[in-house]
Amino acid sequence: MPNTTLLVASSDEHFRESVRDSLINLPDVKIVAEYQEVAANLYIRVLQDLERHPHAGLIVDISGDPEGSIKAIEKVKQAAPDLFVMVSNFSADGETVIQCMRAGANEFLLQPIKRTEFREAMGRLERAPRHGGGGGSKLGKIYTFIGTRGGVGTTTMAVNFASVLAQRKVSTVAIDLDWIGNDVAMQLGASPQYTLMEVGENLERLDQALFEGFVTRDPLGFFLVGPPDALEQHGHFSDHQLREFATFLVEKYDAIAIDGGRNISNDLVLAAAQVSAAVFLVIDQEFPSIRNAQRYISFLMRMGLNQDQIKVVVNRYTKKISSNQASLEQIQQTLNQAVFYGIPSSPAVIASINKGRPFVANREQAGELDRVFRAFVDKATGGKKSEATEAMGKTA
Ligand SMILES: Nc1ncnc2c1ncn2[C@@H]1O[C@H](COP(=O)(O)OP(=O)(O)OP(=O)(O)O)[C@@H](O)[C@H]1O
Ligand SMILES: [Mg+2]
């Protein structure tokens, strides 16, 4: 069984562990993603991972919530009809098995999983027709920006990222999850009347017309929504609501840029990271921010993200470091991963913030910064790739 890859979804750590155990004698089968819940938006994560592993099969443990899980499987199969899905449960009563098959499952594995049965199922997965998984899905992508310190430029990155995409006519939504900072609207010169509170209150009946009717539209064409001004209203928008909102967004929009602030242990920010195609960790070259990046990366990986979904962006990047700064090589060595991009420092940033407009809206003033930032967006969204390293090399 060369190179069989698996996605495993279960809310039960023991189940996920038992699948890992079953692989001990199957060296060619590899788990490439684990999902810690079987929720309605499972298909988003699955589609994202299928882009990287188009031939992977999915195991879903439905024992935690059979009814909800079967609905989740149905959505997964609608989004990726060729995906090979194995369902697992403690009992194999006829009714449940039939429902699973109707939802599109290819296999049923009784728990506790027997090694021989598991091996045979892997054989059938390996022999199943491969049509290239769910590649080329029409779902939008979520990009979350998280700073490893305050003031590193997280909001600036998120705001300009959304702006570049909107300038390119990509349908885009910018979301501010930094309840304390609430700076996205400020950087865009907007004073939104409606906030995430109203999104939460209207989630059940939310459609595109309603959403676009009450959130703010930036002159560049993207929509933005963020926290209410009153700090005590924190908590009125839950991580559960965010996951539902995210499902709505990826179905209706091509790109969603989230300012996650720096509080990574916040439930909302973590939920955003978990539904993101990519998480950009914004750092600078100071040691505290790099040390935190290390902690953030390992935390995100423990929370189910793959290392290649976590992309380190060095803001105010300079080659000419002072004694309390780290070089690119030192950063990469410490973090044990390549830096995704370096964005130069420029007076155009503060000038644009003072004006309440993104710097990419004034290309002439932003000059080199504008050019590098656009190359970053290209690389991040799978556009022109070749400019990337070149741009960073030229950044002094
Ligand atoms: N590339 C840059 N060059 C020059 N100044 C920058 C750059 N990026 C950010 N800044 C400046 O750093 C300050 C902080 O930026 P920003 O508010 O985007 O950071 P943040 O990480 O979101 O901060 P906070 O922790 O307050 O949310 C701003 O005054 C901005 O002008
Ligand atoms: Mg900010």
Can you tell me about this structure?
With 396 residues, the chain is an alpha/beta fold. The protein folds into two domains: 4-127, Rossmann fold, CATH 3.40.50.2300; 141-394, Rossmann fold (3-Layer(aba) Sandwich), CATH 3.40.50. It is built from 16 helices and 13 strands. It has helices spanning 13-22, 42-52, 66-79, 94-103, 115-127, 154-167, 184-187, 196-201, 208-214, 239-252, 267-274, 287-302, 328-335, 347-355, 363-380, 387-394; strands spanning 4-9, 29-35, 57-61, 85-89, 107-110, 141-147, 172-176, 216-217, 223-225, 255-259, 278-283, 310-315, 339-343. It has an eight-stranded mixed sheet with strand order 8-9-7-10-6-11-12-13, sandwiched between helices. The chain has a five-stranded parallel sheet with strand order 2-1-3-4-5, with helices on both faces. Helix 2 crosses helix 3, helix 3 packs parallel to helix 4 and helix 10 runs parallel beside helix 11. The protein starts with a strand and ends with a helix. The site of magnesium ion has 6 residues, from helix 6. Adenosine-5'-triphosphate (ATP) binds at residues 147, 150-156, 178, 181, 183, 261-262, 315-316, 343, 345-346, 349-350, 353.
